[in-house]
Amino acid sequence: MSSTDPSSTDLTRARAYWVRPGLLAWPADASPAAHDRTATKWRLHASRDAGLTFDSERIHSDKSYDLRLKLKGLPKSVTDAYPYLNG
């Protein structure tokens, strides 16, 4: 369950990098500081034709993927390849 009403979700502010198959990176400040990120269920919504929509109940997409947060951060091989993602 999200603490943000989907009808107020601003999809233009989504910030993530798909750095390799099975690994997404997004800024640590993408969730509120007081928010327990380890207890949150993260989900990536996808659309074949960029047709994501939402209403007061949910985000509508062709497919969605459950994501897991790794508190250790990105692997060194990723930050070496993409230094702007370090930190």
Give the helix level as a range of percent: under 10%
| DSSP strand content | 15-25%
Runs with pLDDT <50, length 5+?
none
* Radius of gyration, whole Å: 14 Å
Helix/strand-derived class?
mainly beta
The string of secondary-structure elements, in order, is EEEEEEH
Provide a concise account of the structure shown:
Helices cover about 5% and strands about 25% of the residues. It has about 90 residues and is mainly beta. About 0% of the residues are buried.
Summarize the structure in words.
The chain has one helix and six strands; from the N terminus they run E-E-E-E-E-E-H. The protein has 87 residues and is mainly β. It has a domain at 1-28 and 39-67. It has a two-stranded antiparallel ribbon with strand order 1-2. A two-stranded antiparallel sheet has the order 3-6. Strand 4 and strand 5 (59-60) form a beta hairpin.
Outline the secondary-structure elements.
Elements: E1 17-20, E2 23-25, E3 42-46, E4 53-54, E5 59-60, E6 63-67, H1 76-81
